[in-house]
Structure formats: structure tokens, C-alpha cells
């Protein structure tokens, strides 16, 4: 079951298990998670649960809704995302496994947008040959209990990888052809036109 960890000034105020079809946030006492501060609108934001996915939506709040310090109108939550509502930080924890993540994130190579240059290629398992396009958003793979990695864009058009929960010393800058393993699935980091020996993204 997915969970929200409500924090203020780095102190945990509450842990909330996500149940049902939605979770509301606001200064209004009728909200599922009431946040009594004037930086919070009466009806500030909402999480809507659709099957295994959780979508965060801003409800036209005065001060906006943020995920990982970026303002959002609507956002598909990933494990480890930090939601910013006024003075509060809310950490989203998902129990979604790698198989469900691949089902949601990966696409057949023929469906990749023209001109896209960076992706992960799945090397084995049910989704072998499929790809995960890497864009401006972070990608989390694996379960917290068995080990997760986070891949996100960095300056100078680079991508970095680090284990979730580890300090910055564990950061690795990814290079074309790097192989990444999560649980029993291996991935190839692919950057198009990086050299003359690029591996084809198309499955055999």
C-alpha cells in the first residue's frame, strides 16, 4: 500500500496510507489531510488513484503545488517524489514493483518519438527489447525493500544515477553503453549518435 509522509521543518507529523480513489489536501478541516496554515488553500490539491497509479493535481491553489521543487498542475507520482504544499513537504512512497513500473514506463521502440535521443533499453524479461524514454523527469526503478535506483537529468545534457536514499557520493554519471541492473532485469543506457557503434534500440 502506498503511503504519504507529512513533514514540517524536517519533522514527521503524520504517516497516511493511501486508500480508496482519492486523497485531498487543504486548510479545510474536511480534507483527508488537513494542513492548518495560511499558506495552504482551503482546497489545495488532490491525489487521484487510477489502478496502480497516483496522479497529483493542483486545485487552483493560491501558492501552487510543487513536486521536487517544480510547480505542477498535474503529475504522475513516482516513489520518493517530494510534494511541496506551502510550508509542508509530503514524501510519496509507493509499493509498486518493477514489473508494474516497466508496464507503465516502457514502450515498443517503434512508438518512440522521432528525434528522441536518450533512453533505457530493457535487455531481458517480459519487456525485453522495449525502451524507457528518458526526458526531463526522474525515473525510479525497483522497490524500496529490495533496492531502488533513480535516474534523472543533470547539467550539460547528462543523466545521473544513484541508489534511492544514498548520499551524493553514490552518484554516477551515465555514459552511452552503460549497463544497469535492477533486481533481475538489466538495462542499457542509450544515447543516440554518441559514437559509431550505437546499439540498435529495435528488438531482434
TrEMBL record:
SMART domains: FHA
Entry superkingdom: Bacteria
CDD domains: FHA (cd00060)
Domain FHA: 23-72
PROSITE patterns from the UniProt entry: FHA_DOMAIN (PS50006)
Pfam family membership, one: FHA
UniProt cross-references to PANTHER family, sorted A to Z: NUCLEAR INHIBITOR OF PROTEIN PHOSPHATASE-1
Protein's name according to its UniProt entry: FHA domain-containing protein
